[in-house]
Amino acid sequence: APDLSSIDSIQTMRLEALEQAAGSVGQLRACADALIRHAKRTGCIVLLIGHVTKDGQIAGPRLLEHMVDAVVYFEGERGHAFRILRAVKNRFGPANEIGVFEMCETGLVGVPNPSALFLSDHDDGVPGSAVFAAVEGSRPLLVEIQALVTPGPPGSPRRAAVGLDSGRLAMLLAVLEGRCSLVMGGRDGYLNVAGGLRVQEPAADLAVALAILSSVAGCPAPRGAVALGEIGLAGEIRSVGHLEMRLREASRLGFTRAVLPAGRAVPDTPLAVTPVGRVADLLDLFSDARSGA
């Protein structure tokens, strides 16, 4: 008997006892149940591979996710060499953990230090760029947020985001326009998370806003700085979790400054902390940069 079985894909399997076509809800439930009972009876590990939609979600009903013990997504942009293995459900261990791999000629190779790899081409002197200290499961990860604001056709500005929810980008642009007097009506806004990573944390809001303001001002963000904080509709900067872990990773990679929400105790860190209470306070950072501070 095999120790491991891989079913690619579960939507192509069918039981002769059922009249439904392969991929139907009935066939999907029955085939998955038969394979799960086989796995528990024999001790064989069964990998059920399912089709995904354009959004990267499992196609069809979500019953398959409820039946299995673990759900793992294999993510990555086709144009990038990086692939991410993300555990979104795990009955017998931690969830939301990730593994980062690089697609090489010999196959997938594990990346021991993904932060350094994602920031390998980062340049502090380029406007429209900011670094965000993310947390994926129990792993801190530094990524570069890139923004570009350009003149667009009046009345129909374009908003596009890669690696971030486009609705989140539209909200942040509206907050910047309302709270910082940033005119975006005739400007196109583009955002990219470098390296093909997808960021889902609200804690990335501050880095996104910093990158957008840097692009508009034509001035680089503060050198050697990481930014993290959630932005509310009133323009306030809200605190985020896992602060000590994020700052420790930034310090390890040679960063010297952290732009953080004001009003919260900061753990001991060798980084110089710049507190910001409202999104309008970010404008002072570019005034300091122009004056050479």
Order of helices and strands: EHEHEEEEHEEEHEHEEEHEEH
How would a textbook summarize the main sheet?
Answer: 7 strands, mixed
Number of strands: 15
The SS-based structural class is alpha/beta
Mean pLDDT comes to 87
Strands of the biggest beta sheet: in what spatial order? 9-10-8-7-11-14-15
- Count helical runs: 7
The 3D shape can be described as elongated
N-to-C span:
68 Å
Helix content: 25-40%
Explained architecture:
With 293 residues, the chain is of the alpha/beta class. 25% of the residues lie in helices and 29% in strands. The chain contains seven helices and 15 strands. It has helices at 25-42, 63-67, 114-118, 166-179, 205-217, 243-252, 282-290, and strands at 4-8, 45-49, 70-75, 82-90, 98-104, 107-110, 129-136, 139-151, 159-162, 187-193, 225-227, 230-231, 237-238, 257-261, 272-276. It has a seven-stranded mixed sheet. A four-stranded antiparallel sheet has the order 3-4-5-6, with no helix packed on it. Strand 7 and strand 8 (139-151) form a beta hairpin. The radius of gyration is 23 Å and the shape is elongated.
